[in-house]
Amino acid sequence: MVVTKIQAATDVKIITRLAAYIRVSSDSEDQLHSFSAQYRYYNSIAANSDDTILIDIYADEGITGTCTEKRDEFNRMMNDARKHKFDRVIVKSVTRFARNTKDCLEAVRELKQLGISVYFEENNIETNKTEGETLITLLGMVAQNESLSISKNMRWGIQKRMQEGRYINSTAPFGYKYIDRTYVIDEQEAEIVKQIFDLYLKGYGFLAISQILEKQTGAVWHKRRLWHLLTNEKYIGDTLYQKRYTTDTLPFKLKYNKGEKPQYYVHQTHEAIIDIDSFNAVQELLKKKETPYTPPTEYAFTKMIECSHCHRVFKRKVINHKIYWACNAHDEKAENCPIKPIPETAIQNAYTRMFNKLKRFSKEIISPAVSQLEDLIIKKQCGNQQILSARTELIAAREKMNQITRLHSNGILSADIYNAQKKEIEAKIMRLKELMTAACDTDGIVNTLDKLSDLMDILNEHEVMTEFNEAVFGLTVEKITALSENEIVFILIGGVEFTETVERR
Question: Which of 60, 132, 490, 492 is positioned for an S-S bond with 73, CB 3.0–4.6 A?
Fold first, then answer.
């Protein structure tokens, strides 16, 4: 036997797919200018490198860094990371990335697990180095304390205004408008408020009131909304401050005040819509009549089975102590739909058989589809000139916005011309963003790929079924179509469809 050694290639160029994250935390001119500068800067990094491709720039404007939930672009970046769209993230500093230590570390750890490094320029931290996470923790804690201090000062000011009866929430309740830091009655809405109180005092329940209002207004009036309206002291001109409060620690959460914080009741803070006697009478009736709402029980097949004949959903019913799922149209009148009720056990057995078949042949059925989708995504992501051109135009549009803002602030540009140009530039920015999204839109493909990958994972993780598994069913099936009482189609996540015979016993 002759063994020939093939030397490893030494000149293979490794291309790094780069993503940049930008966050500007206020609307000031300087920081908007900084925003555009960062856009240009990160574009130039890729343009001046032979081994780096800029995949995308994720940019959040005017949003707090204390919580990742409100940062759409940050969340989009994390979702793209999970889809393996890039290899490295570059960001100006830890404080631009997150002011919450917990969120910062969770994001960095997840990115590291995905094989993606993060480089914080100002802090000179690269997360693929061993000491990186320790430094991020320390810097993140400093930034978090800064956020807590700012938040504490703001809440102290609000608390003081509450104690003095001067605090007004800018979100006006239904029936009012917020004008010049006070609540002014909206006559049209106020008439509806009076009608609701009057109907309830006359004995109408929430269901009857909601039906009347929906016919009048065309809007949906849920029980919860009516309850809040009927119990709101603002309709008698008073204000109860601090019904809800924000927690003192990160991440900040809004909670209902059940005695944890002091409350302040102030009389006559604004004009009343309802008289005090009617309001008190309604409160007494609410105590006597209303009970908490409990939602109906849901089963594994609730709203999951659709009739192929009339497109109505199937409902659960018990016939002779046996559970069936019946088409609503057939159940109302047999002549309306020919598909008869199907035993629940028959549907369960059909799913069990289908799952076991799919588990056995998944490599032949699903694996090729996954590979094809992965190849398609890579082709769409790399070298898209349309995205690069749109990104350059976007930077120019933001620069122009900064210029007219400065001219207007200095009194050189009139308000009319400024507003007209601002509106035109904003429309262009919106069009460019839509163009960029469409040009590199792999979300539909990635979504299908993710679902198929999830399906593969589920098939690999679970053993062959000997009986129906409701949890696995819920994870794998999006819908069931009943072709007849003897044949059904399972539509699985990722769009895979399987037809199974219903075996009646």
Answer: 60
